[in-house]
Amino acid sequence: WVIFMINNFKQPVLLFFPMDMLSHHLRCLQLADSIKDMATCIFATEKYFELIKNRGHEVVCSKSLSAEMIIKMGQKGDSSWVSLKNLKPVLDAQIQVIEEIKPDYVINDYSFTAHLAAEFSNIPCVSLINGLFSKNLAIEKGIPPSHPMAKFAFLFPDFLIRSIQELVFKILHQPYRQLRKMYGLSLKNRSFLDEFQGNINLILDTI
Fold it and tell me: Where does the pLDDT of residue 6 fall: very low under 50, low under 70, confident under 90, or very high at 90 and above?
């Protein structure tokens, strides 16, 4: 955080886009609380308005993906929610909020599209990610424990799981490729995991 204090003579404005789960709001709030004397922190969300205001931060309403939908579909092994139909309205809303607030930094905590909105708006993006979604993870990612096939993972060799995972990531990335083309954003050296990375990445756990 010393970097943005050095680069700005005014108090910077940080615009947070958390996933619409309480846990993601709380960890964003923890970060915002730690720097509230150095920066203006604004949350763009559809939930927990009073919680955010009671912690002394500003809040604006912005459309977000339903975490409940993502979790329910994920438990069935269904990733079809990663679609142009679901992502584009959220991205459009985020671009509009960024244009209105004009933040110095966007903080993305699994909103799935805030990094695109920041890139489109030419605003630096800080991504809060778990190690599992980092490109720097040194161990095998394996099958997520919540996936229906996880209990059968021991039946498959690692190379086969990696091959299937690469194929799934390629399919999941298709809507992002469509969005990047629609909004004139770079497609060079992009993969599904790249869509979780920002200009700065804060990895919040080790696995």
Answer: very low
Q: Which residues contact 200 (CB under 8 A, 6 or more apart)?
A: 124, 125, 126, 127
Q: What is the pLDDT of residues 111-146, one digit of tens each?
A: 999 999 999 999 999 999 887 777 666 555 565 666
Range 60-85 average pLDDT: 91
**CB atoms near residue 157 (< 10 Å):** 8
**Sign of the torsion angle spanned by Cα atoms 102, 24, 131, 40:** positive
Contact predicate 179/91, CB 8 Å: yes
Q: What does pLDDT average to over the chain?
A: 86
Residue positions counted in the chain: 207
Instruction: Take residue 191 and report the two structure tokens written for it.
Output: 């993969």
Give the count of beta carbons closer than 10 Å to the beta carbon of residue 148. Answer: 12
Question: DSSP secondary structure string, 157-197?
Answer: -HHHHHHHHHHHHHHHHHHHHHHHHHTT---TT--TGGGG-
168: which residues sit within 8 A by CB, 6+ positions away? 79
Angle formed at CA 100 by CA 99 and CA 101, multiple of 5 degrees: 100
Distance in angstroms (rounded) separating the CA atoms of residues 109 and 151: 29
